[in-house]
Write a structure and sequence with these properties.
- It holds the Pfam family TPR_DOCK.
- The protein contains 28 helices and ten strands.
- The strands form two sheets. Strands 1-2-7-6-5-4 form a six-stranded antiparallel β-barrel. Strands 8-9-10 form a three-stranded antiparallel sheet.
- Helix 7 runs parallel beside helix 9 and helix 18 packs antiparallel against helix 19.
- The longest helix has 28 residues.
- The protein is elongated.
Length: about 725
């Protein structure tokens, strides 16, 4: 066939076409020929390295296609004879020709590329110009090919050949204008190009140059149609934003760093959410879910799926195709799909030890089972599951994750990281050193910054990569329902490191003259507060820092915070040891001894020398309330220490008995002294919890239980009774 076509000149073609007596016969011939050519182009007869035969076939086909295109213009363009399917076949053939692998010269060596261009020219450009001319010939029939031809034309414009792009991108404006003239908008065109652009860029099409050309050409075209200028401008901004995110996503698709892939995936799904493209939004939600499951980030996978459930109602309406995930093709009602997703999410949350969230979803399901579908068997199973989760909260130890601030500085980073700071949530027992090593392995050419302050413009504008990493402390945001109530420590501890959006980094600084005998008088704290875009944990293990603020903490305020932290440590450890008899005794021994034995750390005696003096009161009369808070904290440390030492005495064995006796002796000397100076504090039992009030206004736990004569002190610690 190729040999015969290569022998035919224009006269032969004309003669052959005239042999068809009826236009229907000619149309059938052209349609079948176009389908045959398309099939041969897509499935080469010859091996891919037989370049001479392939290029010869392309040259022959190109001439035949252009000749048949003239026939179409002559015989099948008028209203009576216009045939949509014939023209559709032509456009699809032409685009298949232009996008075939054997014509993508950019993939060849320079020698091979120059050889092909010298002998055959760039056939992509030739047929691209022909497609453009054929499109403009369509006139009033253009609307028949919108949105069907948007995808093929897009695929053609993405071919990396500048002149071809310049010639064919204006077709998009013509499509927009055509649809707008017909319907008053170009919504169909916009939807189709967004859908196809996602597919094409992920497959390797498009680049920065294309994005710039797309923007400049369409805006230039819009100047000729003032009534469309604003709409086109909005559309260009939309497509440019999508292209930026798609190019970022494609750049990291095969990256070893799953973190970068997750970040780009979230950028895309947020973009699709903002422009109300549900189908694409859900598609990327499930890509994010899969990435998290690969890393065993079960909590984050659960939060990603929860975003899908928010698009569904508890109703018996059929699910629309765009809200169905790709792995669930069966016809389902919204209620069925939502229930299935809830079950999956609860399983993920259970694996992630986020039982509080799992219980919330269980309660929502239970309401449906009890009040809507009256399935008491499922309700029974649900309530048993809830009971198990409540038991897990109280009995299973959940290690607090560390949080790390990570700054990516320098122009060497991709745009979604460049000169930005993120707060990362560490995994269980993950140390900063391990986290930092893993982080640096993702950017082997990066330089580690050993400072915690903001770097200067020389670092930010450098072409290199600089990474800053340090540990930050989450700031507790107490749940309203827990305030002013005696809440067990296991429950409070969860909220200290979950549902957090603010984080502190504290750096000690010296101000004024330094007392060599008492460093506390000049120990100020410079505290930076970071606020993230969303609470952690979330759909990612990290979120960008949106605001940073700095404050200075005085030596007295620093002393108060230190005492609060110490008291909380004692309380937490007592509760851990009462709940688990198998824990080793050493950590409790070291904590208690470090406080009661002045030879070890000096206890709070240095606070007394620094702040509880007449001279300090004269110089700082405004600190009276803070001094009372510090005294109250010191007083309440005594019953905490007493409870801890009693517990230690029950656990201590053999060689450690002398150590315990020494600690007990120190406590006996310390207790009367503190009670004489700061008053006696006693544990007050309430139901199953023992409350120890401490001063109000603390920056940590802010739930209060006024008690006995210390009613002015607002916050309560909770010392749990021994297990059983």
């Amino acid at each position: 066939m190729t040999a015969i076509l290569s022998q035919m000149d224009d006269q032969h073609y004309s003669f052959y076409i005239e042999t068809f007596q009826h236009s229907s016969e000619l149309m059938d011939f052209l349609m079948e020929t176009f389908l045959l050519f398309k099939d041969l182009i897509g499935k080469h007869v010859y091996p891919p390295d037989w370049m001479t035969m392939i290029m010869l076939q392309n040259k022959v086909f190109l001439r035949a296609i252009n000749t048949f295109a003239k026939t179409m213009n002559q015989k099948f363009l008028e209203n009576m004879n216009f045939e949509v399917q014939l023209w559709n076949n032509y456009f699809h053939l032409a685009v298949a020709f232009i996008t075939q692998d054997s014509l993508q010269l950019q993939h060849f060596s320079s020698t091979k590329r120059n050889k092909i261009q010298a002998k055959y020219g760039d056939m992509r450009r030739l047929i691209g110009f022909a497609i453009r001319d054929m499109w403009y010939q369509l006139g009033q029939h253009k609307i028949c090919f919108i949105p069907g031809m948007v995808g093929p034309i897009l695929e053609m414009t993405l071919v990396p050949e500048v002149e071809l792009r310049k010639a064919t991108i204006p077709i998009f404006f013509d499509m927009m204008k055509c649809e707008h003239d017909k319907t008053g908008s170009f919504r169909k065109f916009e939807n189709e190009i967004i859908l196809k652009l996602d597919h094409e860029v992920e497959g390797g099409g498009g680049d920065e140059e294309y994005m710039q050309l797309f923007q400049s050409i369409l805006l230039e075209c819009a100047t000729k149609s003032p009534h469309l200028a604003n709409l086109v401008q909005q559309f260009v901004v939309l497509v440019k934003g999508l292209l930026e995110r798609l190019l970022d996503y494609r750049a990291v698709m095969n990256d070893e760093s799953r973190n970068n892939r997750m970040s780009c995936t979230v950028n895309l799904l947020n973009f699709y959410k903002d422009i109300n493209r549900e189908g694409m939004y859900i598609r990327y939600l499930y890509k994010l879910r899969d990435l998290h499951l690969d890393c065993e980030n079960y909590t984050e996978a659960a939060y990603a799926l929860q975003l899908h459930t928010r698009l569904l109602k508890w109703s018996d309406d059929q699910c629309l195709p765009q809200v169905m995930p790709s792995d669930l093709h069966s016809s389902q009602t919204q209620r069925q799909l939502k229930e299935t997703l809830y079950s999956t999410i609860i399983g993920y949350l259970d694996k992630g030890k986020m039982w509080e969230d799992a219980i919330s979803l269980c309660k929502e399901l239970a309401e449906q089972y009890e009040m809507e579908i009256f399935d008491y068997e499922l309700l029974s199973q649900n309530l048993q599951q809830q009971a198990k989760f409540y038991e897990n909260i109280m009995k299973i130890l959940r290690p607090k994750p560390d949080y790390f601030a990570v700054g990516y500085y320098g122009q060497g980073f991709p745009s979604f990281l460049r000169n930005k700071v993120f707060i990362h949530r560490g995994k269980e027992y993950e140390r900063r050193e391990d986290f930092q090593t893993q982080l640096m392995s993702q950017f082997p050419s990066a330089v580690r910054l050993n400072i915690t302050s903001n770097p200067g413009d020389d670092i930010r504008n450098s072409p290199r990569q600089y990474i800053q990493c340090f540990t930050v402390q989450p700031v507790l945001e107490m749940q309203t329902r827990l305030k002013n109530k005696p809440v067990p420590d296991q429950i409070i501890n969860f909220y200290k490191s979950n549902y957090v959006q603010r984080f502190h980094y504290s750096r000690p600084v010296r101000k004024g003259s330094v007392d060599p005998d008492n460093e506390f008088t000049s120990m100020w704290i410079e505290r930076t507060t970071f606020s993230t875009a969303y609470k952690l944990p979330g759909i990612l293990r990290w979120f960008e820092v949106t605001t940073m603020s700095q404050a200075t903490i005085s030596p007295l305020e620093n002393a108060i915070e230190t005492m609060e932290t110490t008291n909380e440590k004692i309380l937490t450890m007592i509760n851990q040891y009462q709940g688990d008899e198998n824990l080793p005794i050493n950590p409790l021994s070291m904590l208690l001894n470090g406080i009661v034995d002045p030879a070890v750390m000096g206890g709070f005696a240095k606070y007394e020398k620094a702040f509880f003096t007449d001279e300090y009161m004269r110089e700082h009369p405004e600190d009276r309330d803070k001094l009372n808070r510090l005294k109250d904290l010191i007083a309440w440390q005594i019953p905490l220490l007493g409870a801890g030492i009693r517990l230690h005495g029950k656990r201590v064995m053999g060689d450690l008995q002398p150590f315990h006796d020494r600690m007990e002796e120190c406590f006996k000397q310390l207790k009367p002294k503190v009670e004489k100076q700061y008053g006696v504090r006693e544990l007050v039992s309430r139901a199953s919890v023992i409350n120890i009030p401490v001063p109000a206004g603390r920056q940590g736990m802010q739930f209060s239980t006024p008690c006995s004569e210390q009613e002015q002190s607002g916050v309560s610690y909770n010392l749990l009774p021994p297990a059983g």
